[in-house]
Amino acid sequence: MARLTLINFVREQWSTIPPLATANLAGKTVVVVGANTGLGFEASKHFARMNPKRLIMACRNPNKGEAAVGRLKRETGFEAVELWIIDLANFSSVSEFSREFDDDGGRLDILVQNAGIQTTDHQETSDGWEITIQVNNLSLPLLALLLLPRMVETGREHGAIPRLVVVASEVHYWANLEKAVLEGGDILRTLSSKEYCTPEIMARRYFDSKLLNIFFMRALNDRLPKSPGSVIVNGVNPGYCYTNLGQNLSGVRALLDWFMERLLSHTAEEGSRQLVWASVGGAGTEDELRGAYISRSEIREVSDFVLTEDGMTAQNNIWDEVINALVRLDSRVQKRVENYLVT
């Protein structure tokens, strides 16, 4: 399905959710970003019941994170869970998180990049970026690249096949990045600028950010060496779920979101099954999951635009811009690119 019509969307939302995939995670380390609520929390509970050696719940708010850890322990009986703090709206917090992980020296088998933001208002972070672009499309790539060595080394040292899961969305089919922006150079800065971010643009900002998630996932996969035990990176669509993602919406958009949630949405637990499938599913066919877009526990085709020549050009140009921006933020990114990726 390279296109998503409204009828297809409604049909998918009303169809039966595939069952939960399970695996034995004994001895393994799982990191879930955005784990204190919604999809991240439900996925963390599922992972906890698979008995990993370590489950790291990466959260922005310490109080909410501690409450989530306590709740997970009560509901699952799993004790090997840790709270780590990360604020994706602050690049220094992402860098510090990765340094702590390097110092910790542990393996990393599964990294679920679940955290994201949806807002219709232009908000600039202290780092000077529009908050959706920073959180969804710069901080998550920064974290992925900084943690990549731990995942590569886990594969080599333990004979494992680590997985990096980017939580995308089916709404990437509805994204609309103007040709003038894609061909104008400095794409990310344009998308982030206050002048560009009119109410009309911000109304679809979340859609566009999910397209950028797909671009990053595919571009990273293209540059990862393909060898036994090498890292699998994929993107997953959890479906439209009842979570607190829309908490920053207001006005008519908030009212519409409220109505649609009650009419169409899956539960957070149902959506989290897709995050888990992308992380542990498809045993025996792992190579097919490299760079794959996963929905309903199966590989689906990405949007028509992504597959066009213009889409592939945009993907590569945006990759270059992301890397250039991240290298200026953290010098370790350049070494990651040189040592762990191929041209």
TrEMBL record:
UniProt-recorded name of the protein: Short-chain dehydrogenase
Record-level Gene Ontology MF annotations: oxidoreductase activity
Lineage: Eukaryota, Fungi, Dikarya, Basidiomycota, Agaricomycotina
Gene3D superfamilies, A to Z: NAD(P)-binding Rossmann-like Domain
Domain of life of the organism encoding this protein: Eukaryota
Keywords: Oxidoreductase
A Pfam family recorded for this sequence: adh_short
